[in-house]
Amino acid sequence: MSNLAKLSGEFIKVTSPEPHVLLVELARAPVNAFHKPFWFEYRRVFEDISREPDVRVVVLASAFPKLFSAGIDFAALGEWQTFDKDIARRGYQLRESTLAFQECIGAPERCPSPVIAAVHGVAYGLSIDIIAACDVRYAASNAVFSIKEVDVGLAADIGTLARLPKLAGNQSLVHELAYTTRNFSAQEAEKMGLLSKVVQGGRDEVVKAALDTAKVIAAKSPIAVIGTKRVLQHARDHTVQQNLEYVATWNTAMLQSIDLIDALHAAKTKTQPSFKPLRKAASKL
Fold first, then answer.
1. Residue 155: exposure state from Cβ atoms within 10 A (0-12, 13-18, ≥19)
2. Which residues contact 213 (CB under 8 A, 6 or more apart)?
3. pTM (whole model) above 0.90
4. Domain 4-218: what homologous superfamily?
């Protein structure tokens, strides 16, 4: 694996606690509040990870023991006041800024490898946008969530209102939480469908659970896993028939992978298969 120090940044720490697995930790003191340098670094980290030849799973967590993220840095909300005084130009510039922010926070969704969010403590506002763009979401039993945007005078515009209704099984509850901004527990988030697992404890326990799952996924064929992520994302946004046609086209190439032969051989011989990296280390995208 490439030099992990190059993947890390001023506000984000990247380590590899398991083979083929990266742990990405948010680390902007004191409360992981996002401002422009932080969210652009977040995008850069995931874009760099996407080019790593042998990364198969990513776990996203907070480096701080008491919280995941307090959301957006309130100072960043006032940036629009520095835009052009003309209302049309100011509106255009604000839209550009919002779209750039959306692209940054949506980076885990574009990452070819599955991303598992491991949440604990306070997870307010932008935290929901962040984890909704991940593939799997675990939370510690001490996690407390809130869709806070209405309380600061805006409709959430970085991903929560786009993704959460597609993730949750209880649309009434989604609306209630978005309108009232009330706190909700990990147990309620699991019941709603935002989470797949609640882990008793705090940061250490939920990160361990996420890494355990990441280790299982990392042992699978990377060709099969990235294909599964791509097809699931397509299914979310298309009809059944469109998705069937898409996966048929996708697998015209992917079924020819040596991974299929290796996996079948391992199953027959009851051995653990070993899969090649997705690309050579020297290759550039």
1. exposed
2. 116, 136, 138
3. yes
4. 2-enoyl-CoA Hydratase; Chain A, domain 1 (3.90.226.10)
Q: CATH 3.90.226.10 region(s) of the chain? A: 4-218
* CA neighbor of 70 nearest in space, from 121, 12, 9, 131: 121
**pLDDT at residue 283 greater than cutoff 60:** no
3-state secondary structure of 283: coil
**Highest mean pLDDT range out of 4-8, 154-158, 280-284?**
154-158
CB-based contacts of 153: which residues, under 8 Å, 6+ apart?
Answer: none
- Higher-pLDDT residue of 273 and 248 is 248
CA separation, residue 27 to residues 34, 69, 218 (Å): 10, 9, 25
What average pLDDT score do residues 70-88 get? 82
List, by residue range, all CATH 1.10.12.10 domains of the chain: 222-269
Per-residue pLDDT, 284 = 45
What CATH number matches the domain at 222-269, 3.40.50.2300, 1.20.120.1200, 1.10.10.10, 1.10.12.10? 1.10.12.10
pLDDT, mean of residues 202-229: 97
Distance between CA 136 and CA 95 in Å, rounded?
29
Cα 278 to Cα 114: distance, rounded to the nearest angstrom: 14
Sheet holding 144-146, edge to edge: 67-69, 122-124, 144-146, 184-185
Q: How confident is the model at residue 1 (pLDDT cuts 50, 70, 90)?
A: low
Model pLDDT for residues 171-187, shown as the tens digit of each residue: 999 999 999 999 999 99
CA nearest 227: which of 255, 269, 202? 255
> Are 101 and 158 spatial neighbours (Cβ–Cβ below 8 Å)?
yes
